[in-house]
Design a protein that fits this description.
CATH architecture: Orthogonal Bundle
Low-confidence stretches: none
Strand content: under 5%
Mean pLDDT: 91
Number of domains: 1
Helix content: 55-70%
Structural class: mainly alpha
CATH superfamily: Hypothetical protein af1432
Distance between the termini: 27 Å
CATH topology: Hypothetical protein af1432
CATH class: Mainly Alpha
Radius of gyration: 21 Å
Strand order of the largest sheet: 1-2
Order of helices and strands: HHHHHHHHHHHHHHHHEEHHHEEH
Oligomer: single chain
Number of helices: 20
């Protein structure tokens, strides 16, 4: 069965931008599911790299696949069960029959949306969901990342919920469960945010939830830079499935999506018309991004003993070749440019570590299109939103197929 990504799946992934978290607590800002998932998967990537240093290439690729897919399965499950409070959900998990009943209902709700991904994907998801225990390295990494991201949110709420009777119990639960995960390489360092560069980097990435996209344009829902990165990463994974990408290419596409707006930690969300106003302005912004990335992120990681993480970030962000939207491979330790045709053919192999820049750009554009389209559908009308839809449609009318994806046909489904 060929895989063809549909509008309904893209909208399902985006729906996490509506889903409120900590909905029974006083919140300084709205906390939404898609932001938490982004922070979780960033931390999962860090733990993946640290805990796979001694693995051979094949086992490392298998672990990467298991982490990305497991994270997606967790997110899809969460989108359906929505507002069930964690203590209630944990009680359901303790009873195998009750958990199986709930999971069968979740799978039934998801099936129409995920059917285009093929029966193999549905079978893997069913098997994963029916086995809720945190067995195996991938599940333990995802669980540790989940706890870290949720605890990070809790610390934002803590100071303004001091009269809440549940506060101490919630914090103690986070601390106890995270302490149980300290045997994983990196967990202790992540928890020592004030004294360790890894912990500071993870905390810094979480701050991207404060930066709202389209900051001068009212929208429902608002989306953050952090949540947008997760949406782009997820789209990149599914479109990698559609075009038959190898394991390395699929994982690189996902993690590249997950970090592609990382420089906005340092520059904020500069809108495209500003970046493209002139070549000089675009070059100036890019030069500033690279310099600040090296000073604030890459340099400290290298000096703190995490050169492998810094090197991987540089590759994902395309710093040596020009842009995260450029297609690249790595041969004998040297980064080389590649064409779309080569990535779909002779370069589509794990040993070359391929990365699909043009595919990432498609996913970035689709995420922006859905953000604008959803806001208009929800009654927020503005010239900026209409212009954004027009620009994206025109771009892909002129180039209807990119990196093997029929973009213009997919956009037509939104008309």
């Amino acid at each position: 069965m060929s895989i063809i990504i549909r509008k309904s799946l893209l909208e399902l992934i985006f729906s996490g931008a509506f889903m409120k978290r900590w909905n029974d607590k006083l919140r300084p800002m709205e906390l939404v599911e898609v932001d938490k998932q982004a922070h979780k998967m960033i931390v999962a990537w860090l733990l993946f790299l640290l805990n796979s240093r001694d693995l051979d290439v094949a086992r490392k690729r298998a672990l990467g696949d298991a982490i990305v897919e497991g994270g997606l399965f967790d997110y899809l499950y969460r989108l359906v069960i929505t507002d069930i409070k964690p203590p209630v959900f944990y009680r359901i998990k303790e009873n195998p029959d009750d958990y199986r009943t709930l999971t069968n209902w979740v799978l039934k709700q998801l099936r129409p949306r995920i059917m285009p991904l093929g029966q193999d994907f549905i079978d893997r998801m069913s098997e994963y969901m029916m086995e809720p225990e945190d067995k195996g390295l991938a599940r333990r990494i995802l669980h540790a990342a989940h706890l870290y991201a949720s605890y990070s949110e809790f610390k934002l709420l803590k100071s303004i919920n001091r009269m809440d009777h549940e506060l101490t119990e919630i914090e103690d639960s986070f601390i106890d469960r995270l302490n149980d995960m300290r045997d994983l390489v990196g967990v202790s360092e992540l928890l020592d945010e004030d004294n360790n560069v890894l912990g500071r980097f993870a905390r810094m990435c979480g701050r991207l939830r404060f930066q709202k996209r389209w900051s001068q344009t009212p929208r429902i829902p608002e989306t953050s830079v952090l949540g947008h990165m997760y949406i782009v990463a997820t789209y990149s994974w599914f479109f990698s499935m559609e075009v038959g990408a190898c394991r390395a290419r699929s994982q690189n596409n996902f993690f590249c999506g997950l970090f592609h707006d990382l420089p906005e930690l340092l520059t904020r969300d500069i809108i495209s018309p500003v970046k493209s106003a002139s070549q000089e302005i675009g070059d100036l912004i890019h030069e500033y991004e690279i310099r600040e990335l090296d000073r604030v992120v890459l340099g400290p990681l290298k000096e703190g003993g995490y050169a492998d993480i810094a090197d991987r970030l540089e590759y994902l962000l395309g710093l040596e070749i020009g842009s995260e939207f450029d297609a690249t491979i790595m041969r004998d330790g040297v980064i080389l440019p590649a064409s779309e045709e080569q990535l779909g053919g002779e370069y589509n192999q794990d040993t070359l570590d391929p990365k699909d820049g043009p595919l990432l750009k498609v996913c970035d554009s689709l995420a922006a299109y859905i953000e604008a389209h959803t806001a208009l559908k929800n009654g927020i009308s503005s010239d900026q939103l209409h212009q954004a839809l027009y620009r994206i449609r025109e771009r892909y009318n002129d180039q209807p197929t990119v990196a093997g994806v029929q973009v213009s046909a997919l956009l037509a489904d939104f008309d």
